[in-house]
Design the sequence.
């Protein structure tokens, strides 16, 4: 009973079917019909004009998006526990040619306008200090928290006031939208670019970079090729994304994962380190308690010395979630 | 009847099967059993110790391999028509942090020790000029030529003498090995790293970087992650490569493509711009002749004003190859 | 009798005086009065609005200027023998983050619109090929040739048509302007940025980057600091440049060097490989002839097997120039 | 009465004299006799083999040194208030091609082995996290603190244990050595490279990068040229450094500045935020007190809301130091 991560879950049947259906010749790279359809599909989904590029990883999505907003001599404000800071092997330094990450604080890896101002206001407006050019937030956050529409709006307003770009790392964007019960447009708010993740949500190897500013996308196309991310058989990536949008599979999958997390969270009480607002749970428990759970067959990561992380996925079985809930309740 | 390229051909059934078989949970990234098997499989194939990383594109494979051999202030010698120079959107400049490509000449995009020396010997050994640190050759070349074992050996000897790394872009390595009738080890010779291409040969989205020097691979693992090329569901890439190695599918596929090219080449006579030594044909023909061929349903690229490029693939139908041969013969 | 290069000549007395005069406290970096004066002084000199930054080397000047015009995924068109390609140790690759140099041909290291079009017209407008973003020309060229106003204008027109920036490497800009007998504004034409060299012309360690587009300068200020080129005692650099502008020392020095070159060129006849249009002479002569000259005490560089390069400077003594002229005439 | 900074102080007469004495032709770049002398001079000074390069700024010195120790995918551990982090305009990101700075804590901007371990021990040894490759410490620190020999030794031991390079930013190295009363070799300890600053200590535009590992210097020479920091009239920089070493001008100047700081510190008592161990004083005082001091003609920077920074220099007049001491005592 696997709660280690959603990042290696199996692939949704609809995704497989779409990939197989793409197995006939079409134009290489992103010249195929499936890739060409993405702009319209996401524009419809978000209710505003989008330009969309597929890439194979969330790291590539995040870094390509930011590279189009931030010059090499600039900086990105992000949370000190943001994935781009902590878990991307320095990819932002590579893609942004040495631009800096400026680290802000905030509960549950959430940023606020105040937290951002605390970082950027002390920066002297001179050439000795690296100036911010963009903000990056994660929806849902690295601790499974979801930004409400007004929270994103407040950050977007600050970004506009300061002339900063706004990027959203949506590796688990579907889970956030599902939790919020809002449209994708509401969950994304007024960002300039969104890394819309599908891999953790039933896809195999395709994420979408959704640009709400076409000029950024025009740069990103060159950068994607230059980064070796323009696959020649791109139709198999586009097929995955189209399949996830068809019949809102992305939303159904996210809801399923969230529901499993909710069921488990319900028994955690004060053990919960962060409100359960997506599909990740951070649960206080002793080493002995973790040992107990592992002996019952539950797989998960330790989170420091006194906690565990449980992640549900699109394919978490109901009985497994129930079993874990019972097991935690019995600790 | 498609002869445009092999780069968007459909995926071989054995690859599909292997991907489906990988659709159960395993460790993320390259921690899965299929990824872990690659070192041994390629070591067996090449008869010497290898360390192998999968990546999604040939561009990423080439540039990651070179980035481990060449410091940012160095240079790579390659043919002036090498893929890394002409068709990778500046990816070497990105991955190698501004290192230079030094362009050598040679018929059929083949390098020779003399051609390489003509480029590197005039470089003053001082800090004002960029010093070479590696050589990159393409097997089979961009014009479908294959290096014989002694030709690679001569270049490898020069590389050793000058302290240069040696990389082989093997986007169509299978086709070269098939043409040469030699083992992979003979076709690769004494290179330090080989980009072993599978995508043009029946794969979907997985190329192998084969390092014959483990120290380079140790660096490459960090660089791959940093470039956003470490996919979380890496087992689907490893599955593709394993499937290509099983039963030597890679060799059968390459032979098939080569045979189709051979059949067509046989009728081309003096039209052939380059000997047919893999699966690409560059055929002199007038615009009117190309028009004639296109009217008969053949798809291919113009190659300048007076020639056409035909590429066969693992799935080129025998009757299509025969039809093209007849059509060219009738021009 | 030194004709090796102008690049290590001694420093002009007026420059020394100005540096000494700057030896009282003022604001650090470029906050001092002398640095602040540069925009106005160059604006007056060129007859149009300029923003000017000092840097310590021509390489830094060229590369900072270009870095403000060309994104990392772009390219610069330059002559295949341009200093930025041949003699800057790969600095453009560093400063431009891996952008490419596209090499054009032309007699005497001069570019023409046709030569530039021959390079850029074949570039497919797709993401697989690196797109040009700027042109760089050298005034006077690496072979001592000077662009006439209409030649620069023709290149500038092409640049505008294609949306390319235009940079002029003016390491010997003074010599070109002196030869042309034109104003600096005419000698520079409609470029976006000029590296105006003073070091070879009597300065010690200060070149000016003259931006005719203020937006580029605003970026360059950050890039200069980031490159470690913002000296804290910048007033000593600004003093050098101001001293060179005072009483048109730059022009007098350049005229002196040119006159010495002219006197020597006058006896060279068919030996001259390139018309003498600045202060560099490339003179055909056999190894034996070079030996003869060296025995007479003349210092110079061999230029390949069959020629020599003689460079005059602001402080070349009249008698030395005459002596060299006589010696060459007597060969 | 100027206590703003030592970074724009006038140039020491011995430096002027040496520069004037260098005003005769010699080989360009670093081929001159003065540049060639540096290795031996510093080897004698430090009592161990050194290879020394001049550069024009401390930023260039720091970043070139680090670039030779740290690959683009690596990281440098430094204090969160280190100059390279706070005041170099992102130069480390540029020179190190996007390598990361890992920020450690410590009183007075001093690092300790514990503080360093607190940063590096939690880094997982996997490709998702950026691995440390070097440590950089500042002697004297950004708060005017000097590392004792055993403190440097402890950090050097940790560096060796972990396979990390060790760099010392010695923008005020002379002041530290003077304070410690130790030899330069003792003040530097077992570092791999030292940025030995002269500009703040009476020089004009020359810092020395002292490499105690010749292999690093061999790389640095290429990187210096590539960064546009190889000046053609390098002898004027070498002259400055030689002049500072002659008769231990560097030490006399540092002692003078330290003595002035000491005199002022003596009256500061509890106002002192950090022990005075070099030539910088951070003094608690209210806005009203600062106003009082400014009215008396003292120039200095505010340090946050409740303090002021006073920096003495090689040329601080005794009477000015005394006057400031009296003024502070009278607050």
Sequence:
């Amino acid at each position: 009973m696997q709660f280690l991560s959603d990042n290696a879950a199996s692939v949704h049947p609809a995704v497989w079917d779409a990939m197989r259906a793409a197995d006939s010749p079409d134009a290489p790279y992103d010249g195929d019909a499936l890739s060409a359809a993405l702009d319209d599909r996401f524009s419809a989904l978000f209710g505003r004009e989008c330009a969309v590029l597929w890439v194979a990883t969330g790291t590539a999505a995040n870094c390509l998006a930011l590279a189009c907003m931030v010059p090499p001599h600039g900086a990105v404000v992000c949370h000190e526990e943001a994935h781009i800071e902590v878990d991307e092997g320095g990819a932002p330094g590579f893609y942004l040619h040495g631009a800096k990450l400026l680290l802000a604080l905030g509960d549950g890896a959430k940023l606020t306008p105040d937290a951002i101002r605390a970082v950027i206001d002390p920066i002297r407006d001179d050439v000795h200090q690296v100036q911010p050019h963009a903000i990056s937030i994660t929806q849902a956050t690295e601790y499974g928290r979801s930004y409400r529409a007004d929270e994103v709006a407040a950050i977007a307003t600050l970004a506009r006031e300061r002339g900063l770009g706004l990027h959203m790392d949506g590796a688990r964007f579907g889970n956030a939208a599902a939790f919020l019960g809002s449209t994708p447009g509401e969950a994304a708010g007024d960002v300039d670019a969104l890394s819309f993740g599908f891999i953790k949500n039933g896809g195999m190897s395709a994420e979408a970079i959704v640009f709400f500013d076409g000029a950024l996308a025009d740069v990103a196309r060159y950068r994607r090729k230059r980064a070796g991310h323009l696959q020649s058989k791109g139709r198999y990536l586009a097929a995955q994304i189209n399949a996830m949008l068809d019949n809102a599979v992305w939303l159904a999958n996210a809801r399923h994962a969230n529901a499993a997390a909710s069921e488990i969270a319900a028994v955690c009480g004060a053990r919960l380190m962060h409100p359960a607002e997506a599909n990740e749970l951070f649960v206080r428990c002793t080493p002995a308690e973790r040992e107990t759970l592992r002996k019952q067959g539950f797989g998960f990561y330790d989170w420091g010395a006194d906690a565990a992380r449980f992640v549900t996925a699109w394919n978490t079985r109901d009985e497994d979630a129930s079993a874990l809930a019972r097991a935690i309740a019995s600790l």
User: Anything to note?
Assistant: The two ends of chain A are 17 Å apart (CA to CA). Chain A touches chain D through 20 residues (CB under 8 Å). Residues 13-248 of chain A form a domain with the Aspartate Aminotransferase; domain 2 fold (CATH 3.40.640.10).
